[in-house]
């Protein structure tokens, strides 16, 4: 007996023909239905308004008669699920005179997206990686730590999150098994004990075994790890556990064909199978409002139905024939999505079934999608009566009392704020951001470090140049010229780069490391030619730390290099490795200067009695290597801007500029210590890399 088929696939047709040949009798069961006696159409301004009208209509129907069951059918429901839940929460909330309404949104998600299944798969992935005796990635291990579902899942959840954040902050790209075990022992001792116990089960496992044997082991291993954790299972979690157990059983039943698998192969195949399984919790029995897709609505029965999104691109669907097969062959086979005729016939079947789902049917479509004008489905042309919905009363805004308070508590005399110069730089960009970051210690969670990331490349090139200048007894231009004159200069540079790579490119593959070293050699050779074109200089210091304090503020800073010119003036150099060189002059000369590392260092050095002649950014890239900076006249460094007749109205004399920086730095330090936390931003780009935007409340104003 066949139920619910509009057409038969080629495979099913062959099976049915074989059954008929063997003498089987085939029958088709069709339920008696009646078409809707009232069909209306509605045109919304956009999809948001359409969903809002439909869902509020559903809530009104149930409130008017609690015995009624209504449905809202969405042609593109999956892409609007967050919007649907948000509108339903508002439309179905309880009032003084009515209880809240229950609803059901029939959209399944991959089983692997549900927390407990995600946790189980994540820990099995860590197990497989450890068994292969290869370095672990913080991203792989961090996913399992954050998922929980293990011993200490509740009591140690903060410690596990701290461990994950530590790996991100330290930009760790890989971990050995020993390092992972040591980290667990330090941060999460309960989990560490369970992990060691579970890992002990590996000793009894052969390298290759069947799918069923691996599933038995996975169950034992997860149980030893403490899965599903300390939390009590609610209804949804219990259903997820049942669905996961079902998938484990389904995988075990593949043993006749999966007779010999490694642990990694079994884990990979199981992960794929669970990801392909769609799971949806059971329907709330009290729900009188159903929200579901077109295909899910077929065969259902309600008292009233509203179908949204019926444009001519949805019903019938846009044709998408297989590009690898001839159109003529697809047409002969009547393949789905192949021809307009095929899609129109299918759309008519679907629309006819929708008309049989309820005695009252409303069909709607949005007039616009952004700036695009949409057209209704041709199946709506015969509907003559337009539906006029009840207007939705706009929500009455709550009265907001604004209190303008730009000050937090000041630093106490015994309270020190330590860090780098970024504290003052952030204060200059946004005092509120600085307060959030350095007083409240709130900041965004960093991404996991990646091999080949720009910051890794920058650190590598910095270290190469530091090692290069340290090789000279007197690191000056004469030493540089003598080195470049040597026949094997390139060989020496390559050896130096390879030596530094042992420390900074650890974890890179041999091919990746070779490419990075080759790139660095080219950049270093270009850069040394730029240095060789300068007038005489001596490298005064390399990677030198400098302490700076003001009141309760104690900051440390480090610059890449300080050069001393022939006349005794100093040029402070900071290496940059971005692909495109840019000047920071506009950032340095404004009222609240930013990018303050070099200006602060210059101001501090001047206070110590030295004479600073300029600030220079050394751009280490293949496209435009060279210096860009700002300073006094006569430095002999191409690319450094100085005050002249053209810009004398914009730039002050150099000595006055140093004084302005000293005053600006002192003012920023005073603001930070006194708790000044106003949301003031000179330029929108100042917040480009802000990781605390929600705290700034940029879109709220009295």
Notable features of this structure?
alpha/beta, PDDEXK_AddAB-type, 702 residues, globular, Restrct_endonuc-II-like, 14% strand, PD-(D/E)XK nuclease family protein, PDDEXK-like_dom_sf, seven-stranded mixed β-sheet, six-stranded parallel β-sheet
Furnish the topology, listing elements before pairings.
Elements: E1 2-3, H1 10-21, E2 28-29, E3 38-44, H2 47-64, E4 70-74, H3 81-91, E5 103-105, E6 109-110, H4 115-131, H5 138-147, H6 157-169, H7 177-187, H8 189-199, H9 211-225, H10 235-252, H11 263-276, E7 278-279, E8 289-293, H12 294-297, E9 304-308, H13 327-333, H14 340-355, E10 360-366, E11 368-369, E12 372-373, E13 417-420, H15 422-429, H16 431-439, H17 454-470, H18 477-484, H19 489-504, H20 510-532, E14 537-550, E15 553-565, E16 570-576, H21 585-588, H22 597-607, E17 612-619, E18 626-631, E19 640-641, H23 654-674, H24 693-696
Parallel strand pairs: 1-2, 3-10, 4-8, 4-9, 5-8, 9-10, 13-15, 16-17, 18-19
Antiparallel strand pairs: 6-7, 11-12, 14-15, 15-16, 17-18
Helix pairs in contact: 2-3, 4-5, 4-11, 5-6, 7-8, 8-9, 9-10, 15-16, 15-23, 17-19, 19-20, 22-23
Protein name: PD-(D/E)XK nuclease family protein
Domain PD-(D/E)XK endonuclease-like: 423-693
Pfam families: PDDEXK_1
């Amino acid at each position: 007996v066949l139920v619910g088929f509009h057409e038969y696939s080629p495979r099913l047709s062959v099976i049915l023909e074989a059954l008929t040949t063997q003498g089987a009798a085939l029958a088709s069961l069709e339920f008696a239905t009646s078409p809707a006696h009232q069909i209306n159409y509605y045109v919304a301004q956009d999809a948001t308004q359409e969903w809002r009208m439909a869902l509020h209509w559903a809530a009104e129907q149930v409130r008017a008669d609690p015995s009624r069951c209504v449905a809202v059918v969405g042609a593109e429901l999956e892409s609007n699920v967050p919007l649907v839940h948000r509108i339903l929460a508002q439309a179905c909330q309880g009032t003084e005179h009515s209880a809240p309404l229950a609803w059901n949104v029939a959209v399944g998600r991959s089983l692997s997206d549900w927390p407990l299944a995600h946790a189980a798969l994540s820990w099995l992935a860590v197990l497989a990686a450890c068994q292969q005796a290869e370095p672990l990635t913080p991203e792989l291990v961090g996913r399992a730590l954050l998922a929980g579902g293990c011993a200490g899942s509740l009591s140690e959840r903060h410690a596990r999150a701290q461990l994950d954040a530590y790996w991100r902050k330290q930009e760790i790209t890989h971990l050995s098994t020993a390092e992972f075990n040591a980290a667990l022992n330090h941060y999460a001792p309960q989990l560490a004990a369970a992990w060691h116990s579970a890992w002990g089960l590996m000793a009894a496992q052969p390298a290759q075994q069947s799918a069923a044997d691996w599933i038995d082991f996975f169950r034992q291993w997860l149980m030893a790890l403490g899965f599903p954790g300390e939390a009590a299972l609610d209804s949804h979690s219990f259903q997820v556990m049942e669905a996961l157990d079902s998938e484990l059983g389904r995988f075990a039943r593949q043993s006749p064909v999966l007779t010999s698998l490694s642990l990694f192969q079994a884990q990979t195949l199981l992960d794929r199978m669970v990801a392909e399984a769609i799971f949806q919790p059971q329907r709330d029995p009290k729900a009188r409002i159903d929200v579901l897709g077109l295909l899910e609505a077929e065969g259902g029965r309600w008292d009233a139905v509203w179908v949204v999104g019926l444009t001519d691109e949805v019903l019938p669907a846009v044709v998408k024939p297989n590009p690898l097969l001839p159109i003529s062959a697809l047409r002969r086979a009547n393949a789905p999505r192949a021809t307009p005729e095929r899609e129109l016939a299918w759309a008519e079947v679907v629309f006819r079934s929708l008309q049989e789902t309820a005695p009252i049917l409303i069909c709607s479509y949005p007039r616009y999608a952004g700036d695009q004008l949409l057209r209704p489905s041709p199946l709506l042309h015969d509907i003559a009566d337009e539906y006029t919905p009840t207007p939705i009363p706009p929500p009455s805004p709550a009265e907001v009392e604004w209190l303008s308070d730009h000050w937090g508590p000041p630093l106490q005399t015994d309270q020190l704020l330590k860090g780098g110069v970024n504290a003052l730089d952030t204060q200059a960009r946004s005092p509120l951001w600085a307060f959030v970051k350095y007083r409240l210690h709130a900041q965004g969670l960093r991404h996991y470090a990646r091999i080949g990331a720009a910051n890794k490349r920058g650190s590598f090139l910095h270290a190469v140049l530091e090692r290069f200048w340290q090789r000279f007894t007197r690191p000056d231009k004469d030493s540089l010229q003598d080195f470049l004159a040597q026949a094997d200069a390139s060989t020496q540079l390559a050896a130096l780069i390879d030596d530094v790579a042992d420390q900074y490119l650890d974890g890179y593959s041999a091919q990746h490391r070779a490419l990075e070293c080759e790139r660095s050699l080219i950049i270093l050779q270009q850069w040394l030619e730029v240095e060789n074109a300068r007038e005489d200089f001596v490298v005064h210091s390399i990677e030198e730390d400098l302490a700076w304090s003001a009141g309760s503020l104690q900051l440390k800073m480090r610059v890449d290099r300080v050069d001393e010119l022939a006349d005794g003036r100093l040029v402070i150099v900071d290496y940059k490795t971005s692909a495109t060189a840019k000047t920071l002059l506009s950032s340095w000369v404004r009222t609240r200067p930013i990018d303050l590392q070099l200006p602060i260092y210059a101001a501090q050095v001047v206070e110590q009695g030295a004479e600073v002649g300029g600030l220079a950014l050394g751009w280490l890239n293949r496209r435009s290597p060279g210096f860009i900076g700002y300073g006094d006249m006569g430095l002999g460094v191409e690319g450094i801007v100085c005050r002249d007749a053209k810009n004398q109205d914009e730039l002050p004399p150099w000595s006055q500029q140093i004084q302005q920086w000293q005053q600006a730095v002192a003012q920023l330090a005073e603001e930070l210590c006194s708790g000044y936390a106003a949301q003031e931003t000179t330029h929108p780009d100042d917040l480009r890399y802000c990781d605390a935007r929600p705290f700034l409340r940029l879109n709220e104003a009295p």
